[in-house]
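[Solved] Which block belongs to which protein?

Original post:
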Amino acid sequence: MTNREILASLEKASVIYRTESGEGRQVWSDVSMDIHQGEWIVVVGPNGSGKSTLASVLLGLSPLSDGQFVHKQNQHRLTRGVLQIPDAQFIGDTVQEELDYLPNGQNLSTEARKEWYIETLSAVGLTIPIERTLNTLSGGQKQLLNLAAALAAQPKILVLDEPTAMLDPAARNEVRQAVREAHKQGTTIVWITHRLEELADATRVVGFGEGRISFDGEPRAFFYGEGGELPVMTPCMELGFDPPFVVKTAIGLLQQGCQLDLLPLDMEELAKAVATLCP
């Protein structure tokens, strides 16, 4: 798929969770994938398909039951993540304490550190006082703070598990813009989501189904299928998803015999594609 450097690889990986009764529940079976430098991978799949397990494995929170997780030397130290439950990641009691645990600001002077606090928070659209206690923050503010801390560590791989699930539309846009900036600076993104409109940022889509990878390819192939003709069932539909509005509109136009110069992933691309139909 790409000649870029491989940062991490999963090879025939399996994960079995032990239940309270001692029985094993297999959540992954024979999962293999490479993560390359500079990719933006969006991971999708139905509930219980194993997509969130990927975040746990990459962040070292879930051991493999079988197979291998191979990463570049010291790469695990350069992987940071934002999980679904914000409180599970906090270390300090205040915003300032949470940021002070990051190595980036520990050697700064008092004045420089104040500026660094502001820059770190504003990168994700937060303007809260650093004295605020974490238990007074809203769920969305907590998630944005976790993202700010992860970005401030300047990781090689940034793993995000449903990072916009608790956010309103404005905050979701702030998160996506902050991650786009990190990606432009060379950070590799692994973004796990159920919001299919977020695939528009992806360079690659990995689809999980029943603990296995059922699709691994480009976003347009995920939504529209491979080849010249629109298939009856696209990979998106095979995973049980209802395509987003933009894709459904484009598919409707294609089924009516319209020729689109571009298979759109977002509203901007849809507007360009429809504009070519108008004389």
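(Second protein starts here: sequence line, then its structure tokens.)
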Amino acid sequence: MFWIRKHILIPLVSLLLVAPLLTTANAQQNAPKKIVATFSILGDIVQNIAGDRGQVSVLVQPGGDAHVYSPSATDVRTIKEADIIFENGLSFEGWIKRLISSSGTSAKVITASKGITPLDIHPHSHDGHDHASDHNHHDDTDPHAWQDVANVKIYVANIRDALIELDPEGKETYTQNADHYLEKLDQVDQEIRTVISALPIDHRKVITPHDAFGYFANAYGITFIGVQGISSASEASAKDVAKIIRRIKTEKIPAVFIETLSNPRLIKQISQETGAKIGDPIFSDSLSPKDGPAPTYLKMMEYNIKALQKALAK
């Protein structure tokens, strides 16, 4: 009898010892993936695709400027612990390669903008402004690809495919989330086109602090003239400002816009000297905090088009 009990007890004991290990392994496997996105706009897009299967950490928080961002020690830890990292690419995050290298992370880095047709900014952008002196951007491409909703559809496909590769069990979730988000993108794209089609053709020109809306201009037919160049960190010369003022007066440009990340002083000066009205502040490189008017990418695009409509409608 003792021999029988012994042989029954040994497997039971073994099972009891292994069970917690299996439970821990399953919990780790089912835990949300640790996802890092470089800045707030990209982070929101990624979270929409990842859903509950991903916990997204954003390095450059809403209200932060990725052009001039300085990573912290916390960022190093966040990157090191990540399962996957999403960057915009197109030289937008000039600091990301050094951060990844210093962290020693083994996470795969995905460039969300891969596959888009980049806009050339060198030596002359769409507005005729010479960007050769823009010392904060060392590439020939405009990085602000998200300003065209069609490009964000490419972002979504890249994000979806990367998450499926990382987490094959979540394929159905990621695919459904992506399809749902693509439908919302189509709605916003149509809203933008409807608003702009109703604007007088001679009113479809605006001045902005930095040249962040080239993709929007190409896609939707509004001319954006950036005073400072492609990077929010660059500074406009007196010659640049004088040229902008002459252009506003000659072409009767109706409105100038303050961006939420830029110092409003220069735009206010241009408005005073030309009589062009100042529109509501618009968002270019960052979302607003959650309690602001642009806490998501979709709301940011809706907010911006309403601001443009308000300023440019006769």
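Accepted answer:
You had them paired correctly. Confirming on the second one: The longest helix spans residues 2-30.
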